[in-house]
Amino acid sequence: MAKFIHTGEKPGKGNYSxxxxxxxxxxxxxxxxxxxxxxxxxxxSRE
Length: 47
Ligand SMILES: [Zn+2]
Known about the structure:
Elements: E1 4-6, E2 14-18, E3 24-27, E4 43-46
Antiparallel strand pairs: 1-4, 2-3, 2-4
Bound molecules: zinc ion.
Zinc ion (ZN) binds at residues 18, 20-21, 23, 36, 38-39, 41.
C-alpha cells in the first residue's frame, strides 16, 4: 500500500510523484518536500 508524503516533511532520498498530477519530484537526504511545482498539491507518493 502506498505511503503518502506531505509538503514540509523530509521523507529522505528518492523519487516522489504528485498524487494529483503525477509530476515527479526528486529529493535528496535532507530535502524538504516542496509543494508540487505544477499544481501546488501537497500530497505525494513514493515511487
Ligand atoms: Zn501536481
